[in-house]
Amino acid sequence: MGDRPLKRRLIQLASALIYNANMAGFGKGELYRGATKGLCVPGLNCYSCPGAVAACPLGSLQNALSRLPRKAPLYVAGFLVLVGLTLGRVVCGFACPFGLIQELLHKIPTPKIRKSRWTRYLSWLKYGILAVFVVAIPVWYAWTEGYPLPAFCKYICPAGTLEGGWSLVAARPEYRGVVGGLFGWKSAVCIAVLVGCVFCYRAFCRFLCPLGAIYSLFARVALVAVRVDKRLCCECGLCVERCKMDVRRVGDRECIHCGECRAVCPKNAIYFGREKRICQPAEENGCSVSER
Predict the structure, then answer these.
(1) Is 247 part of a structural domain of the chain?
(2) Whose CA is closest to 149, among 167, 165, 128, 135?
């Protein structure tokens, strides 16, 4: 079991490199404009990042919604449903570059904020951000003003600021004289999120990310997911207790399917996907309430 975290970290790194394969763009401060830029990657990765070779699904969704009612967002909606049905929040645990950044920041040795009922309450905030900034404001501006306004990307997204805004300003000195108050606001939001992630595990992912909110809607039906064989489970609660996310049970809407709970399960009852398990019922497998 010891090599599982390493494998996940390697997959996270590989995803970040694949999403941002245009490495030369970071030095030149130029965006990639090839054919793949019209396609979406499953994780949060800014379109305006100089290395990005594809589009972010959140940015694409907002732009697509801004074309309502003239054009329905069929491609982006279909893509999100397909990813949700197959992977769900596995994307958050394995294929999101900003998720990787958050986890690395959390390794900085500082006092940590432990999860509690308050962090569970805050985990609902991302659904409000999804409803208001990703859906309502872009649609409202499309209908009333006639031009697109990707509100989440424009006012909140720290990944866009870190990967796109700061990278472009660093590479292109001529941009530094034209950045204004909005860039300052976005920089302040990004710094606040990054600092928050040092003290609170995946703070953006847990409380603010609307892409995670979308994928969480598929928690019960996603094909690839961490699941519990209830015939083996002795309900000791170690999986939920040791999880850094605000889960109430393995595989619920807050689970990012990182698989770390598998290492603490005393009965090896946690597994990936829909694989069939050959096992004995819990009461026949030595489980007891005393193991809680």
Answers:
(1) yes
(2) 135
pLDDT in tens, 137-195: 999 988 887 778 899 999 999 999 999 999 999 888 888 877 889 999 999 999 999 99
What sign for the dihedral angle of Cα 176, 179, 185, 189?
A: negative
pLDDT in tens, 111-135: 999 999 999 999 999 999 999 999 9
Q: Which residue has the tokens 């946690």?
A: 270
Query: What CATH code is carried by the domain that includes residue 275?
Result: 3.30.70
Closest CA to 102 of 225, 176, 239, 209: 209
User: Could you tell me if residue 230 is inside a domain?
Assistant: yes
Residue 105 and residue 181 in one domain: yes
